[in-house]
Amino acid sequence: MALRMKSSMFVGLFLLSLAWKAAWAKVQVNMEDRVEVFLGDTAQITCMFTVSDSPDNVIIQWYMITKTNVRLRIYYGNSTMQVVDRGGQFTDKISVNGKGNSSEVVLTIRDVKVEDELEFICHVNGMTAGSDEGRTMLKVFASPDRPIITGEESGISVSNENPSKIGSCEAKNGYPRPNITWYRDQSSLQNTPGEVIVVTLVTKESSGLYTVQSDLHLNVVKKDKDSFFYCEVSYLVPGGTKMTETNKINITVYYPTTSLDVWVESPKGSVKEGDTVEVHCRADGNPQPPFTFMHNMEELKSELNVLVLKDVTRQSNGNITCTALDLDTYEETLGQTELFVDYLDPVVLIPKDTHVIAQGEELMATCNAQSSLPTHTVWFKKGKKVAEGHTLTLKDAVFDMAGTYVCVVKVPSLEGLETTGSLRVFVQGRPEIKKSADPVQEVSPEKPQKLSCHARGYPTPVITWSSSDESQILKVSQRETEDEVLSVVSVKVTSDITAYCNASNDHGTVSISFNLKAIVQTTSSAPSTSEGSGVIIAVIIICILLLAILGSVLYFLYKKGKLPCGRSGKQDLTKPNKGGIVVEMKSDNTEEAVLLSVNGDKKPPSDQ
Length: 608
Fold this sequence. Notes:
disordered C terminus; eight-stranded mixed β-sheet; disordered N terminus; 9% helix; 47 strands; single chain
């Protein structure tokens, strides 16, 4: 009995110890709620666990939850083996790092696809310690291509009752599905009955990616002609959200004309007679309607809605009316502008054309021109300004005041508006001969001499030539104007003569003389004093040189003994002298003269 009791107590204590161990033995698994990864990248799902009893004898199993909510195992392993289930979705693309004897295992999924977006379970079996499991959701993301926006090419009328299509926006190959929002300028557009309609079409491609197309329909108003429309595409990425905007587009809005603007496009500013005028007309509607132009109640033809008026005059002044016809409502809209043409009449000269005044008198001339604008007058003579203002005054007239005076009338405020007139002034009086060359001239008879005589006066002087020898005047030519004359005479001067230039008109005669002296040419002339002195000096030098040479020759013959000359007597000079030169020699000791011939023979005194 006692033995049974001891056995029962032992079994009880053993069972109690097992129960105590079972109560304290425990397995705990910790995992992230979700792991996010881009399409095509590698995903890693970590499973961390703790086992309180026998951690070396742990079995790890990985499961996935299919789209139909079926639990399928994809991996089995412990401290001695690792097995990937065959024939499944992840057979060739997963691996597990860590074994059952470690406290962490990592499931690695390569080249993640859209269909890999599933829930994964890590089951840890600690045998006597029990088991536990954790879950992680794998999320896959794909950024869409750059969105494309297209606008309606045809115009949109504001008179349409129903919203018209503005454009279309498309975002391709995104995951999860991208969202598209429309904007007008900086304001987003939402569905509004009768005003804004946004139609969205979502397409799932065979790759599992989404393509989203959004069409905007809008009841446009006139101010939309200046508005810009664009799309904003928002899409999810690991850890957040991104947005991409499209290009901005503008639409063509058709709206009726309510007013017209009419203006003179060319020329800018004031218009003067002779100009070509371009009148433009523009409506505030779109498109521009056809225009009709009226000028002083007369319809005029226009090209490309532009009225061209050529060579306008002051008669072109008046209203120009532009009329636009709306082809939808057949309503007319009017606009007008005023055309004013400035003018400048031809000048009026008093006196006009020509005028004759006597020497010493006074002339007062006026120049005026009618104009629509203030004018300014300047007088010119030979291109130089001589007076300013409408009046030209010439006092105490002289011949220098004669000539053509040009009157120029301008409108300073309008370039190109200018007119001119001219006045020819003659100063009446006795001729006046302008000063010529020196009246006394020496002339060679070899060629004719030209003489000129320039006289002025009014009436035009008549010039005649006279001479002390009329036969020497060869030819006379002259050129004359209304109050001046230039006469040129050609004279053959063979002897001294005097030529006379005579200028005469109704008021008298004046003359001028030219004294011409003929230059006499001689064939020879006596040398000058300086030339004679030079010749004499040259002759003396030559004689001295000849004497020096002769003395040298005689001295040489004497040294050679060719000249036997005694000191105490005279040589025989009776022999004939064969030489051509006889020299008289005198001794130093005696005054006896000896004649020597060039060949050394002595000459007698009688032959000297």
